[in-house]
Amino acid sequence: MSHTHEQEEALRRGLGLSRRQLLAATTGIAAAASISLAQPAAAASTGAASKGVLIPPGKRGIILYTVRDAISRDPLATNLPSGFRRVFEALAGFGYKQVEFAGYRQHANAEGGADLETVEGARLLRQWLDDNGLQAEGNHGFIPGSWPLSAADLDRFKQVLEIANILGLGHVGTGNDPTGSAYKADWDVAAEKWNQLGSLACEAGLKLYTHNHDAAYAFLLDSGPLDAQGRPTRSSGIRKLEYFFGISDPGRVHFEMDIFWAHVAQFKHRTFTAPDGSVQTDIFDPLATVRAREKRFPLFHAKDGTSNPATGNGYDMVPFGTGDIDYTRFFAKLRSKGFHNPMYEQDNAPGADPAQSLQYAELSYRNMAALRG
């Protein structure tokens, strides 16, 4: 490796950019340097036009799980967009600039075949992304379940990283919490595993992330009398993921807050039994959790919900911008403007109408673009 290339690699990793993003940035800098400085009025006009936009155009994304029905349907049986290539075209037509994968499978009759989780498949996907001006930012994919890591798990995870770099991903991760356990000892083990996987991701120029549901913001069982299996039955009041923040390496382990599920946690996980047996109340604050460590949350799921206290979760999922979650306040209060990558997600977007998920994607894009603060 030449000295110049070493410097480029250090710059790329320091800025948290993929190789593709660094190339785009340096190309843009070179182009800007060639422009005359005698255009202050135009620059001021551009700044004024963008004032108040809470999600910059280049950061408006969607996780493909939202339109999984379109990706997986048979293109020979419908005139609607189907398979990765045609769905990319549709999403780019709506205005999206980013996508997040939820695996690499599509219908067998779609161009490229069913399984694109190969080097050849990744190159095909990358070509379709580039053709449509899309940047892939992450994937909900394979994270080894075992610990210590087996040789087979390590080999597969390294292939995950290779595919991610072909696709130009900035991040690689999973749709699951680090562990589903309520117990401190299991979260300690999870941190060991994620720190090691995070090191491998860093070596590949990627950020490892975990996507979180409401259960991760429930209270950790870490104190009080032990049960018959020798496990603690009470809590010191720290939430499970808050504990994980402290024991995982901030340089190697990152997070994707699903803002809908964080609000579900605010609704559901309000009390805990303290070591002395008293019941204590603590209301979860999603925004404060992010603001305390913004650079550890490179990704969000921008999933909206209407309030429905009659349900167990307290919210019903709806297209972005049509619910009760205060996204204007959430994005306006972030300190690191333009750093985060919000991905629209709606688990129930597919429906009886086969066009529904893409229609919701278009509506949600318009609402993301209209968000001002």
TrEMBL record:
Keyword Isomerase: yes
GO molecular function annotation: isomerase activity
Keyword vocabulary terms for this entry: Isomerase
Ranges of residues in domain Xylose isomerase-like TIM barrel: 88-344
Pfam family, one: AP_endonuc_2
Stated name of the protein: Sugar phosphate isomerase/epimerase family protein
Annotated organism of origin: Nonomuraea marmarensis
